[in-house]
Design brief:
Isoleucyl-tRNA Synthetase, Domain 1; 4-stranded antiparallel beta sheet
Length: 543
Amino acid sequence: MNNESKLKSAIVEGAKKIGLEVKEEEVTIDHGKDPSHGDYASNVALKFSKKLGKKPLELANELKDAIVSPVINKIEVAGPGFINFYLNQEDLGAVVSTILKEGTTYGQLPSKHKKINVEFVSANPTGDLHLGHTRGAALGDAIGNLYKKAGYDVTKEYYLNNCGNQVAHLGHSLMLRYHELFGEKIVLGDDDYHGQDIIKIAQDLKDKYGDKYLHDDSDEAKAFFVKFGIDIEFKKILKDLSDFGVEFDKISYESDIRKGTVIKDTIADLDKRGYVYTKDGATYLKTTSFLDDKDRPIIKADGSYTYFMPDICYHYDKMSRGFDLLVDMLGADHFGYINRMKSALMMKGYPESCLDIDIYQIVRVYKDGVEVKMSKRTGKAITHRELVGEVGKDAVRYFFSEKSGDTHLDFNMDLALSKSKDNPVYYAQYAHARCHSLLEMGSAFTPDGSATLLTNNNEGDILKHLADFPSMIETASLARAPYKVAGYVQRLAQLIHEYYAASKIIDRDNPALTSQRLGLIKACMIVLEDALAIIGVSAPDQM
């Protein structure tokens, strides 16, 4: 239990003594802005004074006398009714020894015995990843990491849409390009793929199989072109994501969903439940019986399934695997998807709360103050691979994680490449490298975690911030907010740099203080590296 939690518990118990029922989640604890006004402060008296019909100042003084905790050295009432808490140095500094002992497991919360599936990216295997996929990858992976740190059993999943019109056009385009390599004239349709990558895949196919498929127009041959194209495109996608630091625990395939009688059996079951009807030759699902604004087609008039039907079966499959919560990360054009899929799950008796869909907004790239829409190499939109290659994985992952996904993101390439304190990635990584350098320079001293001598204002601020790490993990995971981690990183980096500028960390004339200060620096380095890892950013030892 960290200091904030201990104070909240003490406040709740103290409130009971004077007849005030308060829940811990209702109590707010803030860092003291001025060290002379305490280490922590609470507005609990101002918040609940009306409940007891008392003035805030009167209630604050009553609470001051009622609150007891071994971590508290002194309590003062200030202003109109704020309560300031001064902690015992031993308790304030205990976080250092805890971090040095636990290492990167510090902040790991106990198991919540809850399984969460986070599905993200899931780009169609028909071309390069675009920047929307990049944002989904950065956010989805960080959210999965946050959930794991917060004590959840997490599965990161990719759903491969390897069926339907788009992949059929991919196969057709590849077949035409293959024929073109043998001197035939071809005409690509509007729905075909015109990119250079298809030409390269066609060449790979020719190199491997020669003219084997040149005169074969059977359904088996068409299916072969589709599979060959998908396999290469998907390997490329997974390689780009792996280079971005993103790996998946499971890959699910739409083709598996479509095998056998799964979809037919699902429709029959939903029909028995009274949620299926036909109209104008098409088959509809009564999603308006739940949360949707209109019923959705699941079978077209020509007998083919809409994309929604396999998606429903896929979500049923995920729930059948024992997940307590499904999280889908989707692009900005999927708002209408939320209620229809929730409705489909509710038809099976699952609660509305079993599915959360996070929508992330578009990305714009700027260089020299001008929006960059086109790649100089291809003349088309900048791809994931190009942006990461230009500015590096760390910069992209940090910048794509530091803002809430529901806001538009303007990515400043000049800032991402700069080596200055204005670049938050460089600033944070330099703080880690600075810690490492200090530990090397002070290698003659053994870092000490007792922290009894760490009493100046900078040290107090760092101790409190380090103690906040577990509660930040809890809050950020519940909100699925990697930007809270980035904010924590920036504040810790700032505190490290300020401490370095204001204090003589290595003082060979005072070995006891030096050892404790190096213990604090080592604790900072451990937490900073761990926090950066959550959002997929490296922590170099040298810059």
